[in-house]
């Protein structure tokens, strides 16, 4: 199948929010505390899009994945309890979600690959991310894709596991 990875537009908002909503329900069903506090919400997604940091994975005309990508923009990472692998420029991604009907097809791996390609296109060789301790799917994805556990960061009062991958 041919996939397209592109910047999200406001016309994509409803489809993105549906995917995020599905992911919120999956986290809850798994007993996770991640995304159970009203974040993310439609306003966050709209802000991602208008700021130009929202990206979608598309098959044909269907949006099947979403993430937000930023460059050098995660203040919580300055307070890492641990040690990053690098200290220079980095790409950070948040809000990774795959459509319910597309789970198990390797799309999270594909999304991470596109994020890494985005970083390389910017001349950046570090990708950083974090997730809840109780999100085994994302933890497994990080480990399978060569991300290295670097320590803990705190978001909205909760500790999260932080990872980095050095490209090339």
UniProtKB/TrEMBL annotation:
Keywords: Acyltransferase, Transferase. The keyword Acyltransferase applies. PANTHER family: ACETYLTRANSFERASE. It comes from the Bacteria. GO terms for molecular function: acyltransferase activity, transferring groups other than amino-acyl groups. This is L-amino acid N-acyltransferase YncA. Pfam families: Acetyltransf_1. InterPro entries: Acyl_CoA_acyltransferase, GNAT_dom, YpeA/RimI_acetyltransf. The keyword Transcription regulation does not apply.
